[in-house]
Amino acid sequence: MKYTAKIEIPSEAFCREESTISIGKEGIGIPGRMIDFSQLSGLKPINHAVFLTLMDGKEVKISMLGFSFDGFWEELVRCFGERTKDALFIEEEKIMSCEAEYEIPGNSIMDRTAGRGRVELYTDSVVILPENSHAVRVPLCYAESVVLDGYLIRIRMRTGETFMVGRMGYDTHPFAERCERQMQQVKKRRAAHLHTVQTQEPFTEKGLFRTDEEEAYWLAAYGKQGCAVELFTGEKAATYLYHFQDREKFRIRLEEAMEAVGSHRELIYLSDEEMKEKPLYVMAVHRSEAVLFLRSCSAGRIIHSAAHAEKLKQFLIES
Predict the structure, then answer these.
(1) DSSP string for 259-317
(2) What whole-number distance in Å separates Cα of residue 211 and Cα of residue 107?
């Protein structure tokens, strides 16, 4: 939809009293440019004006929307959230969606953050969608418990991290009950599916992508400080290589990262320059600990060819 408003970008001495603004699936159209959602670190409404904070620190102020303000803000938040979910590769069935308080534990991307925003329950995850770039997908297959504590739902992960959502009004108890049920179901389905996967030399460990991808799985082979991961997704093209310091910590993070990223392998090996041509992948890097982890320890690929087996053997020996 299109809106008429005043646009100001102080850092560029840009100001237009009456401009046409459009909101689309991938970003916001303003005079002379498109602000892709991958460029945004946060959205904020203040005194009937909307402030867009960009990743480079610049700020865009949109004001004088008049009676269109509420509609503009709602559409902006909705489209930003939908694009964020694309960047988190969420394709599963949605079960519930509510406004809720949330608390996200700190990690290497950000410090602990809390606030109120959209929280959604899917068949295999809980997705927290703040009005900034700190969105997170919480995989229920790696949750140890879902506990309702008063009006707060605490999701404790196997790593010890705890995500909190709650104060959803009448939706709090149903959300907690359905979340716990989905956790049990997804664990049961994954265990049954993983049981059918067979390892083959030199691969000694196995794992799954998203639970609904029943035909897809991966196998891993380890050297002293190197790991080779073969993807079985119907398109065998390469074996992906990684370096690590602590094998057990790497193994746990690898399992979680493969579940989060799935078969989107370009995210791992594209250069920073090449990534700029793919805004959705840029969003994924900013929002996914899994993507950052895999990119940080990537050691390249072995393309499938006649020399593949020998190259893989050599990597495992040398690493």
Answers:
(1) HHHTT-THHHHS-HHHHTT-HHHHHHHHH-HHHHHHHHTEEEEEE-STTHHHHHHHHHH
(2) 25
Angle between helices 69-87 and 279-287 (to 10 degrees): 80
For residue 191, count other CB atoms closer than 10 A to its CB: 11
- Residue 191 to residue 113: CA distance in whole angstroms: 33
CA atoms within 13 A on the CB side of 44: 13
Whether the pTM exceeds 0.85: the reply is: yes
Cβ atoms 50, 43 nearer than 8 A? yes
Structure tokens at 22: 């459009």
Give yes or no for a cis peptide into 202 (omega within 30° of 0): yes
Q: What pLDDT, on the 0 to 100 scale, is given for residue 182? A: 97
Q: Which two tokens stand for residue 296?
A: 């940080």
Q: What is the pLDDT of residues 230-256, one digit of tens each?
A: 998 877 678 999 999 999 999 999 999
Give me the phi and psi of 206, to 5 degrees please. Answer: -135, 160
The pLDDT of residue 97 is above 60: yes
Opening angle at CA 278, ends 9 and 250, nearest 5? 110
Phi, psi of 79 (to 5 degrees): -65, -40
Q: Rg of the chain's alpha carbons, rounded to an integer?
A: 22
Residue (of 257, 195, 248, 210) closest to 229 by Cα position: 257
Place of tokens 């865009």: 60
Q: Is 64 left (phi over 0), alpha (psi -120 to 50) or beta?
A: left
**Which tens digit of pLDDT belongs to each residue from 17-42?**
899 999 999 999 999 899 999 999 99
Beta strands in the chain (DSSP E): 2-9, 14-23, 27-30, 33-36, 40-46, 49-54, 59-63, 94-104, 113-122, 125-129, 136-139, 143-149, 152-157, 162-166, 205-208, 217-222, 226-232, 238-243, 298-303
CA neighbor of 251 nearest in space, from 158, 161, 184: 158
